[in-house]
User: What shape does this take?
Amino acid sequence: MMHTQFAIEARGLSKDFGKLRAVNALDLNVPRGQIYGFLGPNGSGKSTTIRMLCGLLTPTEGTATVLGTAVPGPARDLKPRIGYMTQRFSLFGDLTVLENLQFIAEIYSYPTAGRAKRVGELLEHYDLVEQKKQLAGTMSGGQRQRLALACAVLHHPELLLLDEPTSAVDPQSRRDFWENLFRLASGGTTILVSTHYMDEAERCHRLAILDHGVKVADGTPQELQAKTGMHIIEVSARDPYKAQSVIHRLDEVASVTQLGIRLRVLIPERYQQPAARVEAALAAQHIEADVRLSVATLEDVFVAVTLPSNGEAK
Amino acid sequence: MSLSRIMAIVKKEVRQLRRDRLTFGMVVGLPIIQMLLFGYAINTDVRQLRTAVADQAGTHLSRQFVAELSQTQVVELVESVETVERLNALLRGGRISIGVVIPSDFDRRVSLRSRAAVQLLVDGSDPTILGVANQLRNMPFAFDLGPSATSLWQFAEVRANYNPERRTPVNIIPGLIGVILTMTMILFTAVALVRERERGNLELLINTPLSSTELMLGKVMPYIVIGMLQLALILAVGRLLFDVPVRGSIVDLYLAATAFVAANLALGLLISTAATTQFQAMQMMVFILLPSILLSGFMFPFDGMPPAAQYIGEALPNTHFIRLSRGIMLRQAGLGEMLPDLLFLVGFTLFAMTLAAARFSKRLD
Assistant: This one.
């Protein structure tokens, strides 16, 4: 078995569903022991990519190596080394928490001697001791998600694939969930997680932004924020709606997003004096506003890289 | 292949089944309801057919004949009329099923025994009633005509082998075992995989080291036991309510039923790999169930069917099982005497299981 520094390597990975190209020529390097994020809107190809990587879908083109094994291929040896948490709750709603965990332990042929101990440990870790005898189908979103994660990591997988694990849970559960992910990563588990939450993406060691099946950017969150290729300007105005319509008409402006009374304005870096341009335009229309340069957030990065003209001014 | 993984699936299935009251009720309820339906309601030994008599003779002898007729209990005299026209009117109106015309020269016809002494007007739109009328014609009547003459018609004895009392349940229940097991067994497994696909469980399962064959075997095994329980239930009800015997070896019967149940479960799994929703699985099941009832020899004698229907019938597990169960239960036959039917069931199972496991790929596309 090859031991590279990457848990996942993909070259030109593509997937067609009929005439639709869901994933297009994706290159991917996921380092071992890190949390790697897939950020993108619904339908951007996140789930399809994850399903190709775990062998559920056959790529139309391209190759991938997961934990040193070619995918798709004879995946028998790979399955026990991967943990997969589906987007939709996929455990058995008519079995109890304990029964679900026991079932997974049996399916993964977890050594009988340590089985009860491992299950008890997971119940403890994932705060499910009280729900032990509850049917999984009657639990809350957060509880189900903890059970799903417990089941996905029961057999100590080297690689954990998580498909939008937090889409159905409240903010507190999301925070707890990420605590668990960090603990797993520090234990050496490689984690690939897809999300459409910016705050979650920011927590990843590295991330790739997907849009319409294409990887439009990748790197650490800091790297991505440093090289948006945009000036970020924040405008506070008493009438943000009016201000927005004025700014929108400027040729050099790539995007305007309203956040409460503030506007985030993205202007490509090749334009000089961006703040002055915006200020002048507003003053010409007698709109009072506070205009200042700002630092890119991941949200800005996301907006910048997913612009239809790919960052060019309109 | 790992036995412990298969057992994990078996255990899971049993746990889920125990919590699924509807399915659990079906295991017990369906056989009982079907038994009662077929045993009582669908009964081809007809009794108490409404009958009217036009006695134009009005003699001592004719009155004696009418009295004997009603004692058979096959007919129930509801009306006495004067004319044949009136009888025909009652028949047309559906008020009676059989009309008996006793001509005015009845006594003479009886003593001469040259011509038919009475005429039966029958509602021929129902072939069963026509059959009863034919039976009636052959029924012996004894008349006190003096020392020389004793009967009205020739004694045409009908000897019924294996079911001398001509009771329908005796013939129906061995076949009904096949129909009930076809219905429940295919139903259980036809939805088994589809349901897990719909609930999303399948995406989890195919990402584990579980193999297709292990999954298939694990799904089928608990239902074989359930099939055996159903068989026991049917036999018990058949015995208690309808006095249906098991003349042959009970072990042979269970062996035949095991092969048959396995064949149906495998067929159900095959359906499950082809259907994408539970509703589709149900639709496909109907395609199997209807011919299993109509073309298997359960409803109509197999030999009487046109060749095309017989070909279809031969391909159905139920046809072969009904031959086995009737043979063992009624004719006291041994499995060895009906080996081809047993081998068909075993072969069918292997074929359908292999096909199902091959069709069920561990991928989503």
